[in-house]
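tl;dr need the bound structure. longer version: we got a ligand (2-acetamido-2-deoxy-beta-D-glucopyranose) that a collaborator sent over and nobodys looked at where it sits. i said id run it. heres the input, straight from their email, havent touched it
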Amino acid sequence: MGIRRLEGIFLWYLLCIFVISASAVDIKHLNIWPMPKSVSHGYGNLHLSNEFELRTDGSKFADASSILKDAFKRSIDVVRSTHVIEFNTSKIDPSLVLKGIRVVVSSPSDELQHGTDESYKLHVPARGSPLYAHIEAKTVYGALHGLETFSQVCHYNISSRGIQVHQVPWAIADQPRFSYRGLMLDTSRHYLPIPVIKKVIDSMTYAKLNVLHWHIVDTQSFPLELPSYPKLWNGAYSIPERYTFADGEEIVSYAKRRGINVLAEIDVPGHAESWGVGYPALWPSKDCKQPLDVSNEFTFKLIDGILSDFSKIFKYKFVHLGGDEVNTSCWETTPHVQKWLHKNRMNGSKAYEYFVLRAQKIALSHGYDIINWEETFNNFGKKLNPKTVVHNWLGSGVAQNVVKAGLRCIVSNQDSWYLDHLDALWQGFYSNEPLTNITDPKQQALVLGGEVCAWAEHIDASDIEQTIWPRAAAAAERLWTPYGKLAKDPEKVKSRLSYFRCLLNQRGVAAAPVDGLGREAPIEPASCYLQ
Ligand SMILES: *[C@@H]1O[C@H](CO)[C@@H](O)[C@H](O)[C@H]1NC(C)=O
Ligand SMILES: *[C@@H]1O[C@H](CO)[C@@H](O)[C@H](O)[C@H]1NC(C)=O
Ligand SMILES: *[C@@H]1O[C@H](CO)[C@@H](O)[C@H](O)[C@H]1NC(C)=O
Ligand SMILES: *[C@@H]1O[C@H](CO)[C@@H](O)[C@H](O)[C@H]1NC(C)=O
Ligand SMILES: *[C@@H]1O[C@H](CO)[C@@H](O)[C@H](O)[C@H]1NC(C)=O
């Protein structure tokens, strides 16, 4: 191939880049992520006042703890932080200056729980004097989503050097398709410092995720302080790699102020070796350390203590009790446990069932509904408490069996929604449909939603953000946007997802390029909007 020809190809390539990148950032595109339930917009432009203000007159919500005020400030701060603002809006026609946003919330309560109404309406008029945007919501948490959407229609204008609201007038009516839209963090395989967890929580709000599933402890380490059993956190990797009980409370409160529930997990009996560092009696023996000793009453007394402590800070309706990957060989080969099994006429699998059901009863006694990983359903589904939510992970096709049995389900099938699977691409995250093969509306209602999981064998503070984003965003749209508005072909939303990825970068989130494997470095020099 001659040099000429190569040059020609190169020029053509540059032209393509220019055309595609121009269209990705084209203001005519609707670049909101996740796509709202219903949107209409025009093609006008407004300037955001330098004194842009929050007004809440007419709202029944008193905002005693500043949830709304703080969210407003955060939304405007992320919009303003992208560039130095040089434009002075006091010098132009006031009918083109948006003075503020008026937020009307009809519920006085700031309670956040599973099923809390998250709907909102956002209206930005094209002209007016005085000119205000409007958000209407049942709860403050719906209003928070409205503020997030508003922040996504604000743009820095490089010629005016100020913030503008593009595509006015806007009329958006929005609400989530599923009530459970989760992200799982694992702080046992690697400890995550609290500021890192908080930054992840902030980034979740950009994609309207609403549950942080905190897989706190596992085989490798036990970082959380629990007052009832103060030696449990002896199983932490080191002294600095620990969370005090007050830290736990702080994470819950930080998340709640952003509309995010925290689902705490203890994964029993199979993923619990680290518990025995502080309390060796929990191990069947020194040589065989998990599952937790089913024959020892102390095991259940301790679970009761943990859940009693949990109930003081983790106020979400659900607690996760794990129950996956239980290999009962330690029970069958350790003499004193073997003896207990024999006396109680149980084999290993029966004892596994006994353990899970007993742990469920303890959780119920503390007022929780239970979530268990799917093996519990696959092995003894009929015995599970009717309040159980089955958490799918092994493969697809499980949800349909769970809801047929009348139980609720959360979908996280590993082939599509495990973030630590770096070969799971964003297209698969986007296309994974929780209601596959579930047509009966009563059964559909039993699917609470889904969750993407960041198992942390190879994740710590150094790479967590790029492992989560942008692939979690692809799942977030699947869980938020009405089915009929989702693209059948994910390539159709690619430029909007790239836009959202660049928005995350602008907000200081280390979201990886959309192209390539999970958390991969950019492949070559190019615009953010093209990779
Ligand atoms: C904007 O212009 C007004 C009127 O000229 C002036 O009083 C004000 O200080 C200016 N604000 C900024 C931030 O420059
Ligand atoms: C930026 O502002 C200028 C002047 O107000 C306007 O003409 C232009 O259309 C704006 N650009 C975009 C991308 O909206
Ligand atoms: C269960 O654990 C035993 C002992 O560690 C091991 O030999 C066996 O292969 C494991 N079984 C399964 C199914 O993983
Ligand atoms: C364990 O016992 C149950 C009956 O309690 C039986 O159905 C099952 O087949 C047994 N499992 C094994 C592996 O022997
Ligand atoms: C859904 O049903 C179709 C047709 O019966 C089947 O081919 C497919 O494998 C099912 N999908 C899942 C995830 O079970």
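gonna send this back to them w/ a short note. The chain has a mean pLDDT of 94.
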